[in-house]
Fold this protein.
Amino acid sequence: MIVGVGGQGSLLASKVLGRAAMDKGYDVKVSEVHGMSQRGGSVVTYVRFGDKVYSPIIDRGGADYIISFELLEAARYTEFLKPGGQIVTSTQQIDPMPVIAGTAKYPEELIEKMTTSGAKVDALDALDIANEAGSSKAANIVLMGRFANYIKEISSDEWLNAVEACVPAKFAQLNRKAFEMGAQAR
Amino acid sequence: MKELMLGNKAVARGLFEAGVCVASSYPGTPSTETTEEAAKFNEIYCEWAPNEKVAMETAFGASRAGRRSFCAMKHVGLNVAADPLFTISYTGVNAGMCILVADDPGMHSSQNEQDSRHYAIAAKIPMLEPSDSQEALDFTKRAYDLSEEFDTPVFVKMCTRVAHSQSIVETGDRTEHEMKPYVKDAAKYVMVPANAKKRHPIVEERTERLVQFAETTDLNRVEKGTDDSVGFITSSTSYQYIKEVYGDKASILKLGLINPLPVKLIKDFAASVRKVVVVEELDPIIETHCRALGINVSGKDVFPMTDEYSQSIIAENMELPKAPSCKPIEGLPGRPPAMCAGCPHRGLFYTLSKNKCRVMGDIGCYTLGATPPLSAIDTTECMGASISSLHGFNKARGEESEKNTVAVIGDSTFMHSGMTGLANIAYNQTNSTVIILDNSITGMTGHQQNPTTGLNLRGDPAGKIDLEALCRAMGINRVRVVDPYNLDATDKAVREELVASEPSVIISRRPCALLKYVKRQPAIRVNPDKCKSCRSCMKMGCPAISFKDGKAQIDATQCVGCKVCAQLCKFGAFETQEGDTVK
């Protein structure tokens, strides 16, 4: 599952993952949300690949991995993970409207809470790394680079081919750098 | 060629391959991309019509003229187009015509959860229902063959999870079709009572032939399972969820043609398994058909009538074990959708909220004016209802209501079905105040052009309707334009028009902040030494402003420099990046 806040760029991330999986010969389904919930709301994209995929969506207990652009959203969808499933998340925090309006507080110790609920957590400051790579907009590709470490079936060259196939040629170099920096970040 | 393709894009590919020449639609999630993607093929003329009724009539006109045609809409859009629908079922077509309708079980982006299959039954029009992108492409092509063979428009019915899921498709080539001759044929096309009386039996006879077709077509198929203890009758994504849970174990009758439904095929299938379960999202349409045939099936006694389904809904209701999962993390604040930073609607809703106005709302991004902290909207039903229901509200409550109640409606929604409501106000006279939120685009569905923007679907110059002139021509004397980024001017306009003794229209005009041509202004910031922590600026509910360490703070990556927040600060705490005070 790729989760985040509407407008953060999860569409490109799912495109890269879908492309890499299809090029590898897997059956792939990707399910997105459009319209109302995109306006700054919590958004989720499901990506499923394997020998044969029927359902385009993921239910509670159905996800092997969660890639998250935002910490609170990673926590929100943790229950969709299989026990022991892996979260790859950016440490970026974006206040939701109830926090802005002062009716709720942004929760603390979210990474600990995710671990306690049974998930493995790999957290990195994707925004910072993306800026270092050359553009804050490449945070999605930084996260994909990090996530690629867990999918041994797809080689890093195959990942990079998928990235290049999904971004405009003039940004290929930048995204390649972002991907590699994500993969190697401590 | 193999491609990972969105369901809606696969429909567009199907239109291309089927040789379709004319498409007319009104945007509506989850149907919008079918027409947008079709517009990428030069062979297909595509347009945004002002509403779904116009779109359907346009597509029908093209079909009657001899070209394969298409129109697309969301489920509630079909309500708007229902008038032509029921009669073009009688006339039939010349060249093939396909009507795409996209349902939204789970209401991801809709105001209700109606089941469009009822329309297919009521209007006696065949309906195909794909379950993935490949079928979306294939069924769209098949729709045209059926349309021409049976002389009827044909529905392709999508749902959110088919429309907005990508799966792998194999594409083909386009087949061109000669333009069919147009022959004047009053008995077929002039639906006066005498002619319509002769057409109705033709429709009934057509349905009988379609039932025969349904018995043998490969659009419907039986997948024999290894276990005959239970068999499922299903369609659309429910089929995928069943396969996900049961694999090749259970027998499945997968229906691709869901109106009309077969009889013998269903009876034979039911006889081949020990128990029959019908799985369909929303209403029990296949189930009711089975029961009418005297088949003892299970369906809505087990599965819910509401919301969308999933593999775990299948498993749970079939009493299979639940998948183990990580524990939910409790007490997390929600993240509801909100108006974007710099949204021009925000200033207007702030003004309405401040003046404690009653607000009759409508359909669009601005429906988010109903959400906290502004909570400005009282009602939302359907496209155009703000204006007409305001008139009724004012007729019922009189002056007390006229002085503090307004209608808010977007530019595109006004063109869709707001004009007729305004005509009623102008004609039957209430001192109503209508606010047109003109952000120069159809926002919520993802920036589609409309008759007021001066551009067509492809972004090329087009006719442009002048909203002020239109409202005046309709008999509204008080028409004024205000910039919602200017809170004082907006407040003045709202107060003055509410007390005016005749109907008025305020056009709150400022293009959507997300439009590419709208130049983003530099972000502003809060000077923490000047901020007195009064939270006045937070009343706007701008996602770029948060409260950190007791002071307001602006997220520079989100701020578009609209400076509306600064107008609320009594202490001059907002400043440019250079340190100049913003007022």
